[in-house]
Amino acid sequence: MTPRLTLILALMAAPAHAELVLTSPDFAEGGSLPEAQVLNGFGCSGANLSPALAWSGAPEDTKSYVLTLFDPDAPTGSGWWHWTVANIPAEATGLAAGASPAGLPAGAVEGRTDFGTPGYGGACPPEGAGAHRYVFTLYAMPEAALSVDGETSGAMVGFLANAMALERAELTVTYAR
Predict the structure, then answer these.
(1) pLDDT tens string for the chain (177 positions)?
(2) Among 16, 81, 85, 148, which residue has the fewest nearby CB atoms (within 10 Å)?
(3) How would you label 18-29 residue by residue, b for 16+ Cβ within 10 Å and e otherwise?
(4) Which of left, alpha, beta for 23 (phi over 0: left; psi -120 to 50: alpha)?
């Protein structure tokens, strides 16, 4: 067998990289956000509990993850950042329900939401505004840690994640009052 043929056969036999996938036992893609993940404030009366999330299929070079929750339909002209978590260790395969703020993996950092504080801030679109989309995005990162903290804005976390990500996965749900 020639070296070239050996290389081709070896590449064909190598396992293909699985696609990064983000799921939740609390809701399905395209479904509705449960009351447990709705804000308790601004006229909403949910439990404001961060959802359980699971992921798989990360690229081999993943050193950490970034997770964001963004509402592109908020009537601000720039959307609304509901949650950012950076520096989730590469070994993590998900987050438990209620992980924000005290149940995150060691080293993970929550950034500042558009509510003005770090941590999970649930859905609460304006009354009568119709359904808003809530986009959970998981980014596989080539760096073990981004230089962010609890004062880093959602927009900055999103910028860094989009600029550097090896791959990303989204899970979109809706909610209306």
Answers:
(1) 665 544 454 445 545 568 999 999 999 999 999 999 999 999 999 999 999 999 999 999 999 999 999 999 999 999 999 999 999 999 999 999 999 999 999 999 999 999 999 999 999 999 999 999 999 999 999 999 999 999 999 999 999 999 999 999 999 999 999
(2) 16
(3) eebebbbebbee
(4) beta
Distance CA 115, CA 117 (A): 6
Q: pTM for the complete prediction?
A: 0.90
- Taking a C-beta distance cutoff of 8 angstroms, is the pair 57, 19 a contact? yes
Strand partners, 172: 135
- The C-alpha angle 23, 113, 169, rounded to 5 degrees, equals 25
Indicate the burial class of 80 (C-beta count within 10 angstroms; 0-12, 13-18, 19 or more).
Answer: buried
CA terminus-to-terminus distance, the chain: 67
How many Å apart are CA 160 and CA 166, to the nearest integer?
Answer: 12
